[in-house]
Design brief:
The chain has about 180 residues and is α+β, with helices and mostly antiparallel strands. It has helices at about 10-25, 30-45, 50-55, 100-115, 135-150, 155-165, 170-175; strands at about 55-60, 75-80, 80-85, 95-100. Helix content is about 45%, strand content about 10%. Helix 1 (about 10-25) packs across helix 4 (about 100-115) and helix 2 (about 30-45) packs across helix 5. About 25% of the residues are buried.
Length: about 180
């Protein structure tokens, strides 16, 4: 089997089938990070590599949407709800995407509490260093090879996602897909 036969429903089925295993919080750091990354791409909008690398995390008490205006992309944890916030310079141009999928929401909660270190970025190395492009892309390739028996790249996941949703995408979703 290869990635050409994969669909978003088959990828969401995979995440759902593995979710309980990951929600226990007993996986090693790298495995958990890669699973959360792939889940984020499947259940929201699969961002480009450079955007995924640069997602920052903000979740302190009292944090609000205007606090992250000077950051390009933020995963905001506000009142125990997660939002992906895309900034284009002003509050009026901010795009806020609530994380609505329950499995992804629960995974993010475990990840930020138990796995995420004090780094600014959502995804980092186990030693708290920012991920390089090759760290991130190789993580996805290696993880999918082990889980599926063949490799998927970030580009492959983006392609599968776009093929599945392209007829239903809003202009805002099309914009974010290219972000």
């Amino acid at each position: 089997q290869n990635f050409e036969k994969l669909t978003i429903p088959s990828l969401t089925d995979f995440v759902h089938s593995k979710a309980e295993e990951y929600l226990r919080g007993t996986q090693n750091f790298t495995k958990m990070r890669n699973f959360v990354l792939i889940s984020l791409m499947i259940f929201t909008i699969p961002l480009k590599l450079h955007s995924l690398m640069n997602i920052q995390y903000m979740g302190y008490e009292g944090v609000d949407f205007d606090d992250c205006i000077n950051k390009s992309i933020v995963l905001l944890n506000k009142h125990r709800k997660f939002y992906l916030v895309f900034n284009k310079g002003t509050i009026a141009n901010q795009i806020i995407l609530p994380i609505e999928n329950n499995v992804l929401h629960r995974l993010l909660r475990i990840y930020v509490v138990k796995y995420k270190n004090n780094n600014t970025y959502l995804f980092s190395t186990a030693q708290s260093r920012p991920l390089t492009k090759s760290n991130l892309s190789n993580g996805v390739v290696n993880y999918t090879r082990k889980e599926f028996g063949f490799s998927l790249t970030i580009y492959d996941i983006r392609k599968i996602w776009f093929k599945n949703y392209k007829a239903k995408l809003t202009n805002e979703q099309r914009y974010l897909y290219k972000f």
